[in-house]
Specification:
Layout lengths: L1 E10 L2 E11 L4 E5 L6 H8 L7 E6 L2 E2 L7 H7 E4 L11 H11 L5 H14 L15 H13 L5 E5 L7 H16 L3 E5 L3 H7 L2 E6 L2 E6 L1 H6 L4 H11 L2
Pfam family, one: ABC_tran
Function: Most probably involved, with PEB1, in a binding-protein-dependent transport system for an amino acid. Probably responsible for energy coupling to the transport system.
GO molecular function: ABC-type amino acid transporter activity; ATP binding; ATP hydrolysis activity
Length: 242
Amino acid sequence: MIKIKNLSKKYGNLNVLKNINIQINKGDIIAIIGPSGSGKSTFLRCINKLEIATSGEIYIKNQNILDPTVNIDLVRQKVSMVFQHFNLFNNKNILENLCLAPIKTKILTKDEAIKKARILLKKIGLNDKENAMPHQLSGGQKQRIAIARSLMMNPDVILFDEPTSALDPEMIGEVLNIMKEVAKEGLTMLVVTHEMGFAKNVANRILFMEQGSIVVDENPYNTFENPANERLKEFLNKVLNH
């Protein structure tokens, strides 16, 4: 699904990503963990070119998205992103927020988009909110809408950038439950997260990043029950005993 070769990202003299090589397979649920400032979000944002890599290659379905001839807007239709702060359009109601992109990109007609949006709203338990405005919703509800909005585009891959970190503790569970349901549908998911329970129980691969490099790429059992890497052990001791 995604192949990354020698990916680097610099801001001036600061090396944020250092020579990353990884292959992501169809259906992978990958949790990306690591200390703050390790390059996790930058790595994710490079995958759909919200950040422009300094060097390297990123192949999505055999297209190198860093090739200037590749239409990144078409690529992004199949690589959705869910942000930390929801990024809903505050001047549009929930139904309009969901329908805007698929109608504008001509993926769905208006009638098809409304029908699909209502199905997704029911699925995430917010079918009574289609006429509500974003400011009328809680943070957890907004993030569930943001996930539904990404599903409206029928993506192959969803990138989640710390989707629960801006939420109050009691709202985190409702968002993680929706993400678990999405994971069951066979979509490829990359999730930058501090939620170790989600990483352990839902992901099939854990990437541990530190100082701009992927230090560990393991299954959850080896990561959490039998970590071989000393820095990973230190990190897990810190976050799990916090």
